[in-house]
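Two quick folds needed for the group meeting slides. Do the first one here.
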Amino acid sequence: MTLADTTSGEANILLRMLTKEADAVRQFVDLLEREQSALSSGDTDDLPEIAEKKIQLANHLDQLAASRCTSLIAQGFATDHAGIEAWCKKHPAREAATNSWSIILELAREAHELNRLNGELIRLRMQFNAKALEALRVGESSLGLYGPDGQSTKPGHRRIDHAV
């Protein structure tokens, strides 16, 4: 096996990694969109499942990024943005890798924005819930018909059967 064969083989490996990474980031964006839809509609039953899938996919993305970095280092490139750009320039015939990298960057920006918006939706929902709970607490104390023991909770022992 020659050096060119080894370089070509590692280039193919990196190309496959970038394609897998682009697919995984796309799946992550899809999950964030599902999460946003659930938060917007108030149908929060699916949120625990979505959160679990996000954790699993984030771990998978970390593994893919680590593999990409290992491959870049093995080929003599830095692992940062400049390193992948340099790799793409050195392998112009690998247009698919350049396209996958562009897709990864675009989807990562989209995921960042969706995550920010979802965080804002969660914050708003929590504020709404806190206000609703406070309204219930105030409403509960002002009614004062009966306590858990069946007795009037207000002074004066106001009870429904006194009105009869």
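Then this one, please, same format:
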Amino acid sequence: MVVTWKYPEQSLERILARGNFSLGAGGLVGLLVALGAVTLLLAGVLAWQGFWPVLLIAVIQIVLVTRILIKAWERAWVAEQIEVRPDRILVTQQKHKNKKRVELETAWAVVEMLRPEVAWYAPRLQLRSGSTKLELGAFLTVEEKRQLANCLKSAIRKHSALEGAPNF
């Protein structure tokens, strides 16, 4: 999900990119408990009839599904906030409680969609200014990456020293 805010009086534009996962913590726990209960109930009935290996497989399945759903849920807490100012771009990348802040010069900033190294992978979105390179939106879908790239290009274009420069 990509959301933008424009503050014309401050020459500031904010862009927020977040992962999409609509299930809250309580919903996730409820889902995992329900899946576990149904799986163990069915496996218990089969184990009672002598098919005890099914119970082991059910436990392994519950552990794997729980791990996968928790990883997907964690992606909902990944966010990137980008502030485009006339003189600099502030990027705050947050994953859970870990925050990383990067500052780039707006005048020399370039937004690039890089082709993936492997054909079926998604393209990468990179923000570059001078020798500083930063990958953005790794958790976004391809369409959301394109939307983020367009928002960034639009916000940077007003302050760019590269606008109108000849391409060599």
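Slide caption for protein two: The helical segments are 25-48, 53-74, 142-157.
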